[in-house]
Amino acid sequence: VQLVQSGAEVKKPGASVKVSCKASGYTFSNHGISWVRQAPGQGLEWMGWITAYNGDTYYVQKYMGRMSMTTDASTNTAYMELRGLTSDDTAMYYCVREVTSISHDYWGQGTLVSVSS
Amino acid sequence: EMVMTQSPASLSVSPGERATLSCKASQSIGSNLAWYQQKPGQAPRLLIYGASTRATGIPARFSGSGSGTEFTLTISSLQSEDFVVYYCQQYNHWYTFGQGTKLEIK
Q: Which residues, 6+ apart, have CB-to-CB distance to A4 below 8 Å?
């Protein structure tokens, strides 16, 4: 199992960022994908979840309306877009595979998003 | 809103000794608790799920216990590579992480 994320991004305040997460080594539609972020020197924050099976999503309230998660079954890739970036969004963003009754087992390598004017 | 509280925030222990990390949930989560280890510059790694089941490849010196609202991660006979940060996470209702415990060398 591997989750390979897109590379680091540098954005201006107000911009949007779209991070990709390409899955391999398992049946993509059988597992959900969560997005977790970690600000510099801080803890882990779960942002939301999407199932590749039918595209159902769940967003943590603070990200509703500003975050979008999608999947592309043809390429086994999950995407997370975050809009209206501020410096507070500077963080490492991880995609993580969800396993029922286990929580999350495999993590992507992380994508560093830096927001600065 | 589910809140996961880890204590202590940091813990100093000597190599070879035992470390006990605590995690408390603001409401009952049954056994739906996972522990993760995060080394500097790396993604977290799943250690324990179901409160007490070690994930694949995790050494036997890591053990988890508890149910309901109170949980413990015990690391017996600490090795040098164990002095990193540990997070608990509930998955009874979606997901919530604790704030982490940093294990430091005494």
A: A21, A22, A24, A108, A109
CB B55, CB B63: distance < 8 Å: no
In this structure, the number of other CB atoms found within 10 A of the CB of residue B78 comes to 19
Give the residue among A42, A43, A34 at the shortest CA–CA distance from A63: A34
> How far away is chain A from the Cα of B88, in angstroms, using its nearest Cα?
10
Nearest to B97 among A45, A101, A107 (CB): A45
Reported residue count of chain A is: 117
Whether B50 and A102 lie within 8 Å, measured CB to CB: yes
Residue from the list A46, A105, A107 with its beta carbon closest to the beta carbon of B97: A46
Contact between chains at A102 and B34 (C-beta distance less than 8 A)? yes
Per-residue model confidence as pLDDT tens digits over A6-61? 999 999 999 999 999 999 999 999 999 999 999 999 999 999 999 989 999 999 99
Contact A103, A40 (CB under 8 A): no
Question: What residues of chain A lie within 8 A of the CB of B47, using their CB?
Answer: none
- Secondary structure in 3-state letters for A74-105: CCCEEEEEECCCCHHHCEEEEEEEEECCCEEE
